[in-house]
Specification:
The chain is an alpha+beta fold. Helix content is 24%, strand content 18%.
């Protein structure tokens, strides 16, 4: 999942990074659950939210405000792939399964949401059955049925010409998925035959091959129910029908979304949500520096969960009171640069290897904010994802690049110079700064890259995620940040490395990497029951990808979050890339 820092989107361990440098030491720690001051604010120490719930409270009322520097890909649960939207959408869209609202690795624990229990597998993992909880209702009081879940999966995976965002796992794995045209073209009442709904509370998925991590897959918002009669395709985002604790009061595209309590949400059907604030406001296209200012004032949460800006970072790390309200953690994310294998001359592996050797990763790390924002990376899988194995195929002294080796590879691919373009998101200054550092490195070896900036909200739908566009615009290098869809090697690798996942819009395999051996290994892994064997396959995939130089790992991302003191129940969860869990945040004072 693309992390906004979305995506996506996850980590296998609670790899909690204590803020340990001399500039970050904070005196006077207190228990995370014993942290309220007289004003309802938090007196917890740095990293408290990575270890437990900060400012725990069941207090109801008030307005909770989120801010975002651009716009989400979509609020539609079936048409999104940013990590923060997987997190936020659960307020109004309940998937079959979700993650326990808890700190660190506990946040990776799968729990039933719309479903009454975990899935029951049969046929060696090729058939999965779920029963829905009883008494479920939409915001208008109509019952939620298994047919609505079936329809949600059909619209989100099989109508890519209408809803192009989000992964297409179901399309790849369901029997007949390669032939079904989706509910907008196939008007038959039966729909996709491999999803059965024998009654209103039962849904059965029939897969082509065994899928041992299917409970993780149905935690995606794509399984949140959608009533077919209310769906109007790409415009459904304007009138989303809530199955969660909140519903949309208003939605202004590119400006603001306002959510209020869903009066037909029944806590008896939902042991996870608390429905604390009266209102939730999401302000869009807010200046990044303004977001930091509002967060530090305790009045807003950065919806993207990308952490504070560079200027703010210096501010919070030199002020003891502000440092005490920060959380610095890994989030199962990799910052990397995809090398587009379909843009010449990068269809030649030697040219790609020239890029691998040329990049000064320390300069990239510095541009992103230093070690506190990530460790220098050398593998596809981050250390906190199962299947990771330490390796450095393109090692250079001090990770600062090797001009001589890069030029050797250029010569091997028949080039003395290359002219190309590199894309980055216009509203992400650290990403722009990192791309600029890379441009400077590449220039030293004769690779001349020109920076092209595109907005986050359209990065995948219109620009970097559109293969035809990248090829026409000579975009050979693409800045990217990725988090696992769920905490395993498969959840991390599938959508960025499997050739079958390449799509014509909303594409996340930005390298357009299509190696049959890797595709086959991914298929083998997900059908393998033995966990140790499965993880070893993920390690093989990582090595093969680096052999093919499909991407340049830059840093294992760490987020530095500022914790707004006016909000309650703040907990940094590994399940959503280290972001605060948005399910039960409340307001300390109305």
């Amino acid at each position: 999942m693309e992390g906004n820092p979305p995506i996506m989107r996850r980590s296998a361990l609670a790899a909690i990074a204590a803020i340990g440098s001399a500039t970050l030491l904070v005196a006077g720690c207190s228990k995370a659950d014993d942290n309220k001051d007289g004003n309802g604010g938090s007196s917890a120490a740095a990293n408290a939210a990575t270890k437990g719930v900060v400012n725990a409270s069941d207090k109801k009322g008030g307005t909770l405000t989120y801010e975002l520097s651009d716009v989400p890909d979509s609020f539609d649960p079936g048409n999104t792939y940013y990590a923060y939207m997987y997190n936020f959408s659960r307020l109004y869209a309940r998937p079959l399964m979700t993650f326990e609202p808890a700190a660190g690795s506990k946040g990776n624990t799968l729990v039933p949401d719309l479903a009454a229990s975990k899935g029951v597998s049969s046929d060696g993992g090729k058939t999965w059955t779920y029963k829905l909880r009883s008494g479920l209702k939409y915001q208008d009081g109509t019952p939620i049925t298994s047919k609505d879940v079936k329809y949600a999966v059909e619209r989100s995976n099989f109508a890519r010409d209408v809803l192009s965002l989000g992964p297409n796992y179901f399309q790849q794995f369901l029997v007949g998925g390669d032939k079904y045209k989706g509910p907008y073209k196939d008007k038959s009442a039966k729909g996709l035959a491999s999803i059965e709904t024998p009654d209103d509370t039962t849904i059965v998925f029939h897969l082509k091959t065994a899928f041992q991590e299917f409970d993780y897959l149905v935690s995606a918002p794509q399984t949140a129910p959608v009533p077919q009669a209310k769906d109007n395709g790409v415009d459904y985002v304007k009138n989303i029908v809530s199955s969660g604790s909140y519903q949309f009061q208003s939605y202004q595209d590119g400006k603001q979304a306002v959510l209020v309590r869903n009066k037909n949400w029944d806590p008896k059907t939902d042991p996870l949500r608390k429905q604390l604030p009266d209102k939730i406001v999401v302000n869009l296209k807010v200046n990044a520096e303004t977001i930091d200012k509002d967060v530090l004032a305790g009045d807003a949460i950065d919806l993207g969960g990308s952490g504070v800006q560079a200027a703010t970072q210096a501010q919070v790390l030199t002020d003891a009171s502000k440092k005490a309200n920060t959380d610095n953690t890994y989030g199962g994310r990799l910052v990397y640069m995809a090398i587009n294998t379909k843009v010449k001359p990068f269809d030649n592996v030697a040219c790609r290897k020239a890029v691998e050797y040329a990049v000064d990763k320390v300069s990239v790390q510095t541009a992103e904010g230093g070690p506190i924002r990530g460790e220098v990376a050398s593998t596809v899988l981050p250390p906190d994802i199962t299947g990771y194995s330490k390796a450095d195929e393109y090692a250079t002294t001090g990770s600062k690049g090797d001009v001589a080796k890069a030029k050797e590879q250029l010569k091997a691919c028949g080039k003395t110079a290359i002219n190309t373009n590199i894309s980055a998101r216009s509203d992400r200054q650290p990403e722009i700064d990192a791309a600029t550092a890379i441009i400077n490195s590449l220039k030293k070896v004769g690779i001349n890259a020109t920076l092209k900036q595109y907005p986050s909200g359209k990065y995948f739908t219109d620009y970097a995620g559109v293969p035809k566009f990248t090829e026409q615009q000579n975009i050979g290098l693409i800045m990217m940040q990725w988090g696992a869809d769920w905490p395993s090697g498969y959840g991390f690798l599938q959508q960025i490395l499997n050739g079958q996942a390449i799509s014509q819009s909303g594409n996340t395999n930005l390298s357009q990497y299509n190696n049959k051996s890797v595709n086959d290994l991914l298929a083998k892994a997900i059908g393998t029951q033995d966990t140790t064997e499965r993880n070893s396959i993920y390690t093989q995939i990582d090595k093969q990808t680096m052999d093919d130089a499909a991407l340049v790992p830059l840093t294992y991302f760490k987020v530095l979050l500022a914790r707004p003191t006016n909000y309650t129940n703040l907990v940094s969860t590994a399940a959503f890339s280290g972001q605060y869990d948005y399910l039960n945040i409340g307001v300390a004072s109305k």
